[in-house]
Design a protein that fits this description.
two-stranded antiparallel ribbon; 3 helices; 2 domains; single chain
Length: about 100
């Protein structure tokens, strides 16, 4: 860990200084993260909490749709694309496991 040294960064939300530790830098390198953190831990936690309250990551919405394979009504965590089949959880798991025929295209 000798190549890394603690660095002080400025939070883009609140403007306070925070430490980007040598250990965190090593973790970022191991995970091949390209950008260093932009927010202090407090602002990062606030942002993640707000995201969760909004409906999971980035404001994702639950959408009601009809399963292409079995015809049951289901909810999916995305907005379906026109012309692309939507599968319920059971049919998706079957297909993922390779138990079903391919979707006609």
């Amino acid at each position: 860990m000798a190549e890394f040294q603690d660095r002080v960064l400025k939070c883009m939300d609140c403007g306070t200084d925070f430490v980007f530790s040598a250990g965190e830098q090593q973790f970022y390198r191991e995970k091949d993260f390209r950008n260093e953190p932009k927010r202090c831990r407090t602002c990062k936690n606030k942002r993640q909490s707000a995201s969760t309250e909004r409906g999971s990551h980035g404001g994702r919405v639950e959408t009601t749709a009809t399963c292409f394979q079995c015809g049951r009504e289901t909810t999916v965590p995305f907005r379906p694309t026109q012309g692309r089949p939507v599968l319920c959880r059971d049919c998706f798991q079957d297909r993922k496991g390779g138990h079903s025929a391919p979707v006609p295209g």
